[in-house]
């Protein structure tokens, strides 16, 4: 069932969103050459505990995955793109790190992801990351009341096509609110004017992710970490967005993040 949120409920989700944005900002500042992924995981745990929030990932056990997830943040490096398990890995110069975080604050969820390049960026990695950020802003701009779900998907797909990146449709955006994953799947490509009508109160986690040269994925033996099938590098950008009478409202925007689209 798809639940439309009231303005007051969206404001409560924004509280969770501000905290998610704060944690991702701090993790991005700490992600440097020589830093262990486990240190980033521990810092996220400390912040969540101090804030009195609840991780949406801890004990998360969907149909895929091997056993419940026992971390609070997904950390995926280079060809890994989604659901990366934090492990004993020291970041190296040029690594492409995806950080995905979802928390509950007072019964309401927010979900966001960002990609950072550690140390010295390669130009092709910089372009890849910029493309997912551009696609996210295009998706946000398409989340207009009265529009269709396919408008959002088509906006993401158009950016991918313009930059020459394949699109995988197995994992994409989703509804969010009282839980991390609510009804509604938002593919990262589609046709405009198709799908359900976007109504004020609809809350979505929009998350374009691309691999440089393939749309196919493989899973690590851990059952969680998803990688590009050909080993090419990947990127992931995500925000929690509310459709309102006045247009899309981003609930997880980071303070130092410049939106290409307001």
Automatic annotation (TrEMBL):
Catalytic activity: Release of N-terminal amino acids, preferentially methionine, from peptides and arylamides
Cofactor binding note of this UniProt entry: Binds 2 divalent metal cations per subunit. Has a high-affinity and a low affinity metal-binding site. The true nature of the physiological cofactor is under debate. The enzyme is active with cobalt, zinc, manganese or divalent iron ions. Most likely, methionine aminopeptidases function as mononuclear Fe(2+)-metalloproteases under physiological conditions, and the catalytically relevant metal-binding site has been assigned to the histidine-containing high-affinity site.
E.C. numbers: 3.4.11.18
Co-factor(s): Co(2+); Zn(2+); Mn(2+); Fe(2+)
EC top class named in words: hydrolase
InterPro entries, A to Z: Creatinase/aminopeptidase-like, Pept_M24, Pept_M24_MAP, Pept_M24A_MAP1
One annotated Gene Ontology cellular component of this protein: cytosol
UniProt entry keywords in alphabetical sequence: Aminopeptidase, Hydrolase, Metal-binding, Protease
Any one GO molecular function term: metal ion binding
KW Cytoplasm (keyword) present: no
Family the entry assigns: Belongs to the peptidase M24A family. Methionine aminopeptidase type 1 subfamily.
UniProt xrefs under PANTHER family: METHIONINE AMINOPEPTIDASE (PTHR43330:SF27)
Assembly, per entry: Monomer.
Name under which the protein is recorded: Methionine aminopeptidase
Species the sequence originates in: Actinomycetospora succinea
Name of the gene encoding the protein in the UniProt record: map
């Amino acid at each position: 069932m798809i639940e439309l949120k009231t303005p007051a409920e969206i404001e409560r989700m924004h509280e969770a969103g501000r905290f998610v944005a704060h944690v991702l900002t701090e993790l991005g500042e700490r992600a440097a050459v020589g830093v262990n992924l486990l240190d980033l995981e521990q810092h996220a745990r400390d912040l969540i505990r101090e804030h009195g929030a609840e991780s949406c990932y801890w004990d998360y056990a969907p149909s895929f995955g091997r056993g419940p997830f026992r971390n609070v943040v997904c950390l995926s490096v280079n060809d890994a793109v989604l659901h990366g398990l934090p492990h004993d890995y020291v970041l190296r110069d040029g690594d492409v790190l995806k950080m995905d975080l979802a928390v509950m604050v007072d019964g309401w969820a927010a979900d966001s992801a960002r990609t950072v390049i550690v140390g010295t960026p390669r130009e092709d990695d910089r372009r890849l990351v910029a493309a997912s950020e551009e696609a996210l802003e295009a998706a946000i701009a398409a989340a207009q009341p009265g529009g269709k779900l396919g408008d959002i998907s088509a906006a993401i797909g158009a950016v991918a096509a313009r930059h020459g990146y394949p699109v995988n449709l197995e994992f994409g955006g989703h509804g969010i609110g009282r839980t991390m994953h609510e009804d509604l799947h938002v593919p990262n490509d589609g046709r405009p004017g198709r799908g359900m009508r976007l109504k004020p109160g609809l809350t979505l986690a929009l998350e374009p992710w691309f691999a440089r040269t393939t749309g196919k994925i493989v899973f690590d033996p851990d059952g969680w970490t998803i990688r590009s099938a050909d080993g090419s590098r990947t990127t992931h950008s995500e925000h929690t967005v509310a459709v309102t009478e006045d247009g899309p409202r981003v609930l997880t925007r980071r303070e130092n993040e410049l939106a290409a689209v307001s």
